[in-house]
Amino acid sequence: MNIFEELESEVRSYSRGWPVVFDRAQGSRVFDEDGKAYLDFFAGAGALNYGHNNPVLKQALLDYIQRDGITHALDMFTVAKKNFLETFKEKILEPRDLDYKIVFPGPGGANAVEAALKLARKVTGKESVINFTNAFHGMTLGALSVTGNSMKRGGAGVPLVHATPMPYDAYFDGQYPDFLYFERLLEDSGSGLNEPAAVIVEGVQGEGGINAASLAWLKGLADLCAKHGILLIFDDVQMGCGRTGPFFSFEDAGIKPDIVCLSKSIGGYGLPMALTLIKPELDVWEPGEHNGTFRGISPAFVTATEALRTYWSDDELEKSTKAKGERIAAAFTDIVKAYPEANLVAKGRGLARGIEFESGELAGKVCAAAFERGLLMETAGPDGEVMKLLPPLTVTDDEITEGLKIIDESIATVLK
Question: What's its EC (predicted)?
Fold first, then answer.
């Protein structure tokens, strides 16, 4: 028995699929303690959009630490926070004509979601929140209440209340008009639906199985919320920071949510950081009403600022991400056509891509075969039936070629 099996809880998950001890990483590669290299198409579950140990971000971090820049500051004013706020305004908000106040809710995506849910209820005085089938918003109680996965919900140990699921885009395979059920319940005084404070949605459901909502569906949802006076919370924790191409995954739909949740790659370097963006009129917090010890991690402000300056001063990363995503999509379409009897489905947007298999067992076997060949991928979906790709946005064309070759070989090994 190794030290991990001896002391670490049975709750560990990723290490079961990748049973090696990792030691270092650079770009799109991670290396185990014996020096074996793995191509990383997992990227910290979307927390490493700019790759491992990105040299530009690393230098900014080293310089900050070397000069004894303050590390921990709660929500006090710091130079690191000031630089981040100024850069976020200049590079992200102003070019998109977005007007948001910024809440620093704590270090992770669930913190951003919890803050959003609390604020929506405080602003409206209503308790109910609408979520969607196969959604994933985090593992804390509020976030779990609006999450779909039954296994994750079951871990709560208490009833998860004040949330009502509705069908996500294409849930009924186009058999019914968008929002037929939701709007009917909203407008029927006999439906029994509690009047919702907010709707929370992901533009692409990552954990839910790389389910990409159409832009028309997202626009329709925003219009429906506006019509009925419901706040729209957009969870861009995994799909934000350029994962689908634009900085926010809702940009191409032409909408401006009331509240936006960001985490994972907002810190740039894989350091903990989360933001809840709120329209100014929603900023009704009392001082200290939502707080946390680690809501001001200055090294993350430093690397986040450098990432925004380096990658979001122009549209080169956005164009590159879309082009690489289309290349992977084309390769996945060819794979689907090559195995007509397997009923595969290619899914995704930008550099969030997946192939859905008929079972979680098959998808798991493909990911295991890829790991044996030196590629890290995870599964997603309610039964783990989707082979999921989240490579760094900085992945090279040669690395994509390498990864696609491994994926092709792995699928062939499993299906043939």
Answer: 2.6.1.76
